[in-house]
Write a structure and sequence with these properties.
350 residues, alpha+beta, HIT family, subunit A, 25% helix
Length: 350
Amino acid sequence: MASQAHLNKWEKRWHPLLQEWVILAATTSQRPWSGEVIKAKEENLPEFDPGCYLCPGVVRASGEKNPEYRGPYAFTNDFASFSMDAPDVHRDEGFEKTEPVHGTCRVICFTHQHNLTMAELERHEIEAIVKVWQKEYSTLGQHPKIQNVLIFENKGKVIGVSNPHPHGQIYATNFIPRICQRQLDSFIQYHKEHKSGLLTDIVKYELEKQKRIICENKHFVAFIPFFARFVYETYIVPKRHIASISEMTEEETLSYAEIHHRIIVKFDNLYGMSFPNITMLQNAPTDGSSESKFFHFHTEFYPPMRAPDKLKYLAGFESGGGNIINPVCPEEAAEMMRNASEVHYKKAGK
């Protein structure tokens, strides 16, 4: 994948949001490969699956029955990782230290149609999903115990998704997750030093350079950052500083839905497959701190694919050493994303 100009590229690139180094080693994409090969296989799924606990009208394992919903539908996860009813356990004995953890986990079905992905939906359907995200963030964030609301989607079997019905999740917790806190600290520190916003300045820089830009519209820009850790790691960032998804105007909401849709369609079109991906909507904490205003809302995509048939694994050096190695120059990956069609391959020619 790497061009001749980048075949001898080894360098560290600074990740200003996480305050850590990312390793760029463009030669590794050219090494001989005899490891696991991923075979993309289109599944012929029905529009409705009576055995799927996310489909309309189906009784879930909890005994609750889903309504005959259309469009997006949100409910509390029956097998949640967090609970507001968790016991208040405190212990500090030797090396055994515990603190109480409270929270709630929500599931958002993106559509009633079991056989579609978010990338295959129409634009107005994406807009409806974004508005549910906004409502959930605002509602959950108002709870006095909730300090952070993390919205995300895991897509694809290789990510570990157990149900193909198009859906995402929300974890609302009484603590700020480590990466969210690291990003907030970076935003605060940068503002103290420069009297401006970190992502605001990164967006200005990327728009000036253009080489890592994928696409943009009036209110948002999508790009592969200079410090990308994964081959097609992509950011969507608002051009003005807003701390959370709930601060977007109606026009910005529609603009965000538009560019989000463009990116996920491009992902699928890269290799003509339903592209595995982790999508994170990074919002300001909801702990009431005055410093949360320095957070800059943005969306991060972490696709694990490094080639049409290969996954990017975090193996020995990365898991044990902590620095992720990107085998492809972000500038080249951005060019591939720019060139990917914005008409989904399943709809092309129709």
